[in-house]
Amino acid sequence: QVELVESGGGLVQDGGSLTLSCVASGFTFSEYSMKWYRQAPGKEREFVAGIGSRESGHSIFYADSVKGRFTISRDNAKNTVYLHMNSLKPEDTAIYYCAAGAWGQGTQVTVSS
Asked: N or C: which end of the chain has fewer CB within 10 A?
């Protein structure tokens, strides 16, 4: 079955950087688009970034709130998708989830002001 395991979260200061990783298994990774979502306390889960399948040319799309600060990438040989986060703000504090027809368990990102 599909399994997604996120890692890389942590506590960082305002303006700092973090890179999240999501290792996937149970499906042909290169054939699926991969997405990152996040959920802040008291808020609904929201889309952050996505990267298409190999067939789509790995098209990339971002939420407006993270454009220019976050970069999504993937390594099909490692079945891994990354989210490189720069210029982090306190409002980026959330649990970040990897998604591909299923959800990972999430990784906490906390940005202190």
From this structure: N
